[in-house]
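User: Predict the structure for this protein chain, please.
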Amino acid sequence: MHKEKEKIIIVGAGIGGLVSSLLLSDQGMDVVVIDKNKEVGGKLRSIPSEDGPIDAGPTVLTLIDIFVEIFSQAKLDIFNELDLFKDPYLARHWWPDGTKLDLFCDHNRNLENIESLFGSQSASDFNFFHKDCKKLFNSFDKSLLKNKLPTIFFTKPSFLKNIHNIVRILGKPSTFSQKLNRYFEDPKLKQLFGRYATYVGASPFNSPSILQLIWFAEFSGVWRVKGGLHKLALCIKNIAEDRGVNFVLEEEAEKILTDGKRIKGVALKNGTKLDSNFLIFNGDPRGIAKGNLGNDVSQILSRSSVEPRSLSAYVWSFAAKPKGKNLVHHNVFFNQDYSDEFKKISSGRISEDPTLYVCAQEQSTKNKKNQRFEIIINAPPVSLNKISDKEEYDLCKEITFQKLKKMGLTFHPEPTTKNLTTPANFETLCPGADGSLYGLNPQKMMSTFQRPTTKTKIKGLYLTGGGVHPGPGLPMAALSGKHAAEMIKKDLALT
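Assistant: Here is the predicted structure, written as structure tokens:
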């Protein structure tokens, strides 16, 4: 049996650290969460404003079953704790020529919409693509994505029984873009589904075709939280705090302490030292590899597990009165030349005609004429970014709002500098990440197996977050937090 009130230190209050704190607090352990920021959530964040908090990170929940299970393990019902509702729309897609396509979590409606716009052949192409994505997702969901150790996925029944489908669907190695060329004839549909590579910070032109399964993950259901998704972080924090977790905010970890073989605690920049034999690091593992938390732990990660970096972004979060387009929650405004957009990013710039994601959140809590918005532009990570600090705001503003104006959407008032989050800002938020939002760039077929796993070579040190297996995205980062908590419980039972 483990010692009563065993101390667990969690460095970082992103979704992974929050989930770990919730599941460990339920066991009566002494849990301390340290974070350098004023608010919990990490990249699951909001910007305060007179119109109410505005989402500045993830905007919806997918793979809701993961969160249902996490809350259930903590003896909670997520639907009792949060005002959740399923959005029938997956997204509304717009092209420069005026084409508009709505997609839903309803396969037949999608088939009808695609056929009405692009013809029966395109609908047939989509039907084939959708079924293959479903088979891939079901093959890898439990065997790989929900498995604590990715390297043994091929022994799992859910993988083995579908091996013939996997071999057929994946075929010879190809990029996601090349694979879409085999599924679709229509360039707009290739562009639309290629965008799902950006959900994990990749370009469809140099990422593996297995990323097509992301489509089915989103199709499985898009859930919203009334008031903004940041409320998920606040909800978990409040429950964990009620159960005894101590949140120490606006304090930064300086060094993870070890004796060479096992964890001994953490030293904070304010001079405080906290002793513990168990520590969860919820941050980008690249920060550890770069030595940001001391030489004791810098050697546990290989360069291939944290490099090259995935995409960053410029993110607008603001309240305004929109005019000219009937928006849903998820809106995507495409460009003419998708490949050129990623060529520009790889050269350290952003496209003069980028794809824009526009999230129409909710009405203002103060001025009912205003609605809250988040707009995301894909961008290079800090180390590749050749856009100077002086030109970032003006350049992003001109590119973003001139493009939307040309496509028939305007805002009044337009946002100011305080409403823009840059790659450098993301680096400040998550030190060592290089401003990257998704950790390791999944540009190789084997990238999935190169990410760090939750358990490390140092006894008592565990990793969580989007840079850790099973990968980026809110559900995956939450799963890593669940894995860390379960491993600690198991290891404590052995002491």
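DSSP finds 18 helices and 20 strands in the chain.
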